[in-house]
Amino acid sequence: MKILLSNDDGIHARGIVALAEALLPYGEVTVVAPNRERSACSHSLTLEHPLRTGPVDFPVPVSRALSVNGTPADCVKLGLSKLLESPPDFVISGINKGANLTVDVFYSGTVAAAFEGVFSGIPAIAFSLDSFAPDADYRPAQAWVRRVLDRILAEGPDRGFVYNVNIPALPESEIKGMKVTRLGKVRYRDSYELRHDPVGRPYYWLSGEPVILDQDPDADINAVRAGYVSVTPLTGERTDVAVFRKWQTGRDQP
Ligand code: MN
């Protein structure tokens, strides 16, 4: 099996090394990832300067590791169109430092990298760990990467959506299992913090805590907070089909 691996935390992040290590037994892993952190850049593409790529020393024996001075979407698009000799069986992204749940999936470069796989007809998975701690333990997440991938392989990978996988930052014995979920609803409170610089000028810093508006235990954020590995099938279909049908019917009426 051939896997194209990317992320948005940069090629030197601990999470992508942990993910590569977990995936090595499955076949040939090629890493194409940003040369620096590009979190929260979603599907941004680089249009105004050239993309350059080159090999980097990677701590685990993948077949190739290339960094790109671009975004996660640049990396996957360039990887699929130029850097890989043949299409991979999977595009896999992560393991992101921090969860990608609810509305955050719209901002996430990790999820966007996986979507670039789906846009090219290739099955894709995004993995995120619910921790920003620099010393977070990625070993339980590695075990769940393998379990989730084994389940997907057993069922036959679907190329119509991204498997968005969020793993609680818990010791392995405390993770309750895997749960199929849907995107939960949250609203961020106090999203920007007002501060002042040394000469008294105000500035703003993005912060804020999500207020969960969703009591459904099958919502992704509730599953992760309850200790489950959350697997959400995310489609790229953004059309509201019910409104489409209603308006189309209206148009056709005299
Ligand atoms: Mn990130």
UniProtKB/TrEMBL annotation:
Question: Where in or outside the cell?
Answer: Cytoplasm
Question: Domain Survival protein SurE-like phosphatase/nucleotidase: where?
Answer: 3-189
What EC number(s) are associated with this protein in UniProt? 3.1.3.5
What GO terms fall under cellular component here? cytoplasm
Cofactor binding mode and count? Binds 1 divalent metal cation per subunit.
InterPro entries from the entry?
A: SurE, SurE-like_Pase/nucleotidase, SurE-like_sf
Cofactor (UniProt)? Mg(2+); a divalent metal cation
Main localisation, per the record? cytoplasm
Question: What does the record give as the reaction this protein catalyses?
Answer: a ribonucleoside 5'-phosphate + H2O = a ribonucleoside + phosphate
Query: Which chain regions cross the lipid bilayer?
Result: none
Q: Does the keyword Amino-acid biosynthesis apply?
A: no
Q: Which Pfam families match?
A: SurE (PF01975)
Highest rank taxon of the organism? Bacteria
Record keywords:
Cytoplasm, Hydrolase, Metal-binding, Nucleotide-binding
What is the enzyme's main class? hydrolase
Q: Where does a divalent metal cation bind?
A: D8, D9, S39, N96
Record keyword Repeat present:
no
For this protein, what is any one GO molecular function term?
A: nucleotide binding
- Family to which the UniProt record says this protein belongs: Belongs to the SurE nucleotidase family.
Sum up the protein's function in the record's words: Nucleotidase that shows phosphatase activity on nucleoside 5'-monophosphates.
- Please state what the protein is called: 5'-nucleotidase SurE
Upper classification of the source organism reads:
Bacteria, Candidatus Ozemobacteria, Candidatus Ozemobacterales, Candidatus Ozemobacteraceae, Candidatus Ozemobacter
